[in-house]
Design a protein that fits this description.
The chain is an alpha/beta fold. The protein has helices spanning 25-49, 54-71, 86-95, 109-128, 140-162, 174-179, 181-187, 190-206, 221-235, 261-266, 271-299, 308-324, 334-342, 349-364, 366-369, 374-389, 391-400, 402-417, 420-448, 455-461, 491-498, 520-532, 582-595, 598-608, and strands spanning 78-80, 331-333, 467-473, 476-485, 506-518, 539-542, 548-549, 558-559. The protein has two domains: 19-389, no CATH class; 455-608, STAS domain (Transcription Regulator spoIIAA, 2-Layer Sandwich), CATH 3.30.750.24. Strand 3 (467-473) and strand 4 form a beta hairpin.
Amino acid sequence: MLTTAVHPCPPVDKPRNGIPGLRHFRHDLLAGLVVSLVSLPLSSGIAIASGAPPIYGIISAIVAGLVFPLVGGAYVTIAGPAAGLAPALVVTMAALGGVGNADHVGAGYPLLLVVIFAVGCLQLLLSGLRLARFAAIFPASVVEGMLGAIGLLIIVKSLPMFFGYTGPTHAHAFHEYVAELPTYLAGGDPIVGSIAVASLALMFVLVAPKLRLGRLKIVPPQVLAVVFGAALAACFRGSLDPKLFIQVPENPFGGMHLPAFAEMWHRVDLWHAAIVGVVTLTLIDGVESLATALAIDRIDPFRRKSQPNRLLAAMGVANILSSLVGGLTIIPGGVKSKTNIAAGGRTLWANFANALFLLGFLCVAPHLIAMIPKAVLGAVLVFTGWKMCQPSIARHVANIGREQFVFYGATIVAVLATDLLWGIVVGTLLELGYSAWLCARVTWARRELGLPGSLGGAWLDMFRSPVRRRTSMGTVVRLELGGPVVSFNAYRIGAALEALPPETTRVELVFGHDVLIVDHTACDVMLALSESSAASVPVVLLGLDRLRSLCDHAKAVRVHPAWRSDAHGVPGRTRDTGSWSEATTAALAAGIAALASPELVESVELAEGLPEVHETDRRGV
């Protein structure tokens, strides 16, 4: 019997946000300083990749730092402009009138601010309706494909800046940037291009697994690369065009653009592009922010859990305020959040300290920012894009299942060929079709064994809660799952866990006899739920090993034992006639009958004593 449990940690003083969190401000202040050194180059580079001057990215990070500690929703996540949104911002801005660059604001930027304002309002509405968890319905492989495509787009759109090219850029689509690569190489500056190559090489060296950096490991490679590149550029400053460096205005907050509400109201021809932009940005915002928050929760040394709806509200408020002062979209960032944890940050006041230090850099030391070559920021963006689409991610997805690799690759191709929104739709529809096909195969196999099953009901169950029964035995709560457990309904298990009585001391998730399939995303959700529940209630998974795994990976797709497929090396049908043998039928019927018996579960537990437990302790992270 496969059982997975996570035991609660001993009681500790867990830092809280708000006024109580100020007692930890000495830790958050130091962490905020370290994070600001990361946020400064990253926010500047993301702004340039988004088709805006770098000052707009820094202002966005400042707004995020001032808003998030007051609204809450997370604990150690650091918010600001995100690289994952840069391609969508560029496409939306181009559709609304024109894209800018590092030196000037595009004609479509004031209208883009209207879109960002609308995104913030929509996020507040979704938060009020408690719909944040719906961002989890997208299959994990599709999300990985979306991020991989975004990584490729970031790389190609950073190449002109990387090579020191200052001429006009006419490319917008992925293949257009690739086609213009010879132009960027020929028209670039060889000195800053060499500095960018050296900075990029340094980042790859610093993340080498065998390299031991000691305490220097706290500082992300992007920061060290920026310092290294700025120092190299200082040696050649006299021979380099000033346009190759970041331009910081004398009054950083003067000349800020406001949302063009009136123009958008009268430009009916732009409404379609604006609506598509709102939907795309809201979708990417929700998916990426939820994934980041869950990932950071897993490495939080105090094992605290983010509140998705409150986090979505914080993003909504931040996006509204950011748009009103000319800033970009705001979401939690993984790199800055990991840096915050490594530097000892404990609450969202580290975000506030980050904003204060960024303000200080703008007001007191703008000349230091002006020492950074744009090509080095291009190297940082190329490195960031590479981390999102590196081959190891594709290998990981392929190890989970060949079908997952198909979804991953199809999403990347669809995004690069069309846009982010259509790419997500294509990948999700492929996953939906595959899950529906598996449900049909399993339902037919169950019918051959004389078991009940409706094909239409199975398909509808993909969108219904898989929690079929909830029973309480003292302080132990058992949730029995049934039907298909897939990405489109697995998020409801989390909602059921949140509704547990406060006196609950143990939760058992039982995969009942009528569970048809468990897809990769659902397996991932089960493990994530177990880990995130570690602070209060241990979670045990029972019966998962009774389902047939389509490959050896722990998170692979699993199907009901009634379906045996020769394609996956599991005997059951004869190759000659495709008919079930009597012995196989009898064996399966006996196994399924045993599977349906709750008494067997209890007897096995009594026979084995306590189930095998795997304890996860992240206090040392």
